[in-house]
Amino acid sequence: MSSVVTSFTGMFEAQGNHAPKLTDIEIPLIQRDYAQGREDAKVTDIRSNFLDALHSAVTGGEPIGLDFVYGEIDGGTLRPLDGQQRLTTLFLLHWYLAFRSGRLGENHAWKSFSYATRPSARTFGKRLANWTAEAGTGLLSDRVRNQPWYQHGWRHDPTIQSMLVVLDAIDERFREEDVDAVWARLTDAEQPAISFHLLPISDMGSGEDLYIKMNSRGKPLTDFENFKAGFEKTVAWSTRAADLALRIDTVWSDVLWPYRGDNDIVDDEFENYITFVTQLCEWRDGDFESDGRRLIDRAAVIFGHDHPQAAANLDFLFDAFDTWRSVDIAAVMDDLFSVVATPGETERVIIFGTDVNPNLFDACCHDYGTTRFGYPRMLLLYAVLLHRIHQTEDFPRRLRLLRNLIEASENELRAERMPDLVEDVRRVVVDGALEKVERFNINQVEDEKRKAAFLTASPDLTDVVFRLEDHPVLRGALASFELDPDRLVARVNAFWAFFSDDAVLPALTGAMLTCGDYSRPRSPNVFQFGSPERTSWWRELFTATSYANLDRTRAVLGAFLDQVAASTCPVAETLADMRSDWLVEHEAGPYDWRYYLIRYDTMRTGTSGIYAVPDQRMGYSVCMLRAKQMNSLYRDPYLVAALREADVRDAVQDGTDGPRFTGYATAERWLRLNASNTGLRCVEDGWLLDPPTGKDRDVFDQVRFGMDGLTLTENGYLFAVPQTEVDGRAVDTVDRVEMAAGLLQALVAAGL
Q1: Mean residue pLDDT across the chain
Q2: GmrSD restriction endonucleases N-terminal domain: from which residue to which, for each copy (predicted)?
Q3: How many CB atoms lie within 10 A of CB 197?
Q4: 3 state SS of 34
Q5: Residue 677 parent element (H or E)
Q6: Taking the mean position of all CA atoms in its chain, how far away is CA 348?
Q7: Which strands, in side-by-side order, build the sheet including 77-82?
């Protein structure tokens, strides 16, 4: 019988999936005492985390699966070999909720739960299950100890004392919950909040043999030992079955021995690497939904005699291990990969990210199933295996190309796409056929074709292109670069120079804007510039879009890099000089949006470097985003600049830089004064004022009468900014930020 997904109460009910119906659960004599109630620090943490997970599942969170419970079932009685601790905690949770909701007196089958480890534990369990007292106050454990049936000698039984500790911990978490609702969620027959896989012992070999092994070793078989026994049966159809068992115990163990854990065994490492190979076989077979199943069940499918590719899959498993026999794996990986780009060294492929282990075999053995060994690393290790198995040509170049495709395909690296992506890896590594790649990011595929054509014409610039690819901001994507053979060397050096120090980021956007509008349209009303804080946003600006969508960015970046390359000053000084020289040249106006972003640093303080507008063009109505979405808080950059210039930040509502906003770019964005609630808003033709009411209105009028250009409109008082027409658009001829700063100072000075 295979495993079935069930719940604690579900085990005692008839099910239509051929699951056994239990009448009792008995913890066998061989098992240790119940340990989850021990009060040492380690167990306390384990208990707390486990109960937190159960609490979340039954109070509206995601349902939780508790892995496998397996044991011997005889005449309806389950004697668990593994899962004793979880089952006992589940029994106590059910008891507590039934006790609290008045259901404990009902005839529940799950109450037939007992311990055979000690007579005292068995008796205590029966007494507890049939206790029908009403809920009261104080510690639940004290109430139990005060019952006439509670025996004084039980204070020496570790299982009983552990149960009482857990009952108090459960009571602490569930005391304020709606116990009827929690009970309903816990015992839901169709969608229980807490479930597990129940596996009868008959599916794992002889129960008697396993019990004997447990007695002789003092602990259960490891997961890998159980897997190995079952896997040998799975591949018994093959002439390689005997060889498989021998190699696992000999030469393959030798391969893994340098990567053993602190316990000086390689079981976990074996299991991780075999899981990785099994996953690859599943993907190559088109299966992307197997992650939730046990390894032995997955292996039974992919390597079983009924699978049409079983022989090929088994051959691949042998190859995946045999290729590392008598090989210094660390040295091989060190020749292929690095985590730091070094000038002049482009042979090794950079693996980007934090906490990166360039030895992908080591990472697979120890980190498989974690974010440290996710899809990108899996595909790269698969590429190495394909190369070693097929002895492919030009592998360093193909590996680099594959790295670039992977880095550009964050949105494509999803479970349902992995079967196609592993086929694309084979096309790149084995066939060298970039033109046949189908599932990696299409923009990056086109970028790789452009680079290949460029290097065919200019092979002497190969190392220069590779050095640019290795920059952590670009990570192989060069669509934002014009590959000009005459200027490429200088531009690459300049790019590395100004992105080598995050301290220059606040000045970078201002300096680049002096060369033109380099923004990348994210949508008709949203434009991305560069971030003053994080290079990750610059990466998003320069990559993750089509070549055509980067036309404007590419042209300005080229002109900017030429200026940086021509300078003999340090980068920070060069950027400052570019900005100051441009401002001197444009000090007489007119003043478009670009002028304001260059002059006022505060208008470039949005973390993301993304700006949203209401009318598909940058102008004087702009939202400065700190994230990607308009539903996150953002600022109006003109209001921030005016407030900073006026230096009256203590006089306004909502903090030193004024208010944050949310919603559409068409929404009104008002800066309001503390004393009078007078409002100021930036609009295309100037500044709107929302006057105060009551006694402050007279003071406001006095200020208003003393200011030229302040007129009443249907939307409020307009402080118009003088403008002229440039290329069909109204552009300021007077600095509107300075005008608003003077207005704010006058209002605050008047007591408003």
Answers
A1: 89
A2: 25-230
A3: 19
A4: coil
A5: none
A6: 27
A7: 4-6, 194-200, 64-74, 77-82, 24-27, 113-115
Q: What percent of the chain has pLDDT over 70?
A: 95
pLDDT at residue 551 in the model: 95
Q: Is residue 585 classed as helix, strand or coil in its secondary structure?
A: helix
Dist CA 694 CA 691 (whole Å): 10
Strand partners, 610: 528, 625
Q: Residue 252 is encoded by which pair of tokens?
A: 């393959």
Of 190, 176, 196, nearest in space to 59 by CA: 176
State pLDDT tens for residues 389-414. Answer: 999 999 999 999 999 999 999 999 99
Residue 129 one-letter amino acid = A
State the Cα–Cα distance between residues 720 and 730, nearest whole angstrom. 12
pLDDT at 559 over 60: yes
Question: Can you tell me the distance from the alpha carbon of 477 to that of 495, in angstroms, rounded to the nearest whole number?
Answer: 14
Tokens of 62: 């995601």
**Cis before 358 (ω within 30):** no
Write out the E strands in 550-625.
Answer: 610-612, 623-625
CB distance 64 to 90 below 8 Å: no
Q: What does pTM read for this prediction?
A: 0.70
DSSP one-letter code for 699: H
Q: Do you know the residue count of the chain?
A: 752
Asked whether the beta carbons of 405 and 437 are under 8 A apart, the reply is yes
Closest CA to 644 of 708, 681, 600, 583: 600
CB atoms within 10 A of CB 274: 22
Q: At what angle do helices 571-585 and 488-498 cross, to 10 degrees?
A: 100
Does residue 242 carry a pLDDT above 90?
no
Whole-Å CA distances, 136 to 169, 234, 247, 295: 16, 56, 63, 47
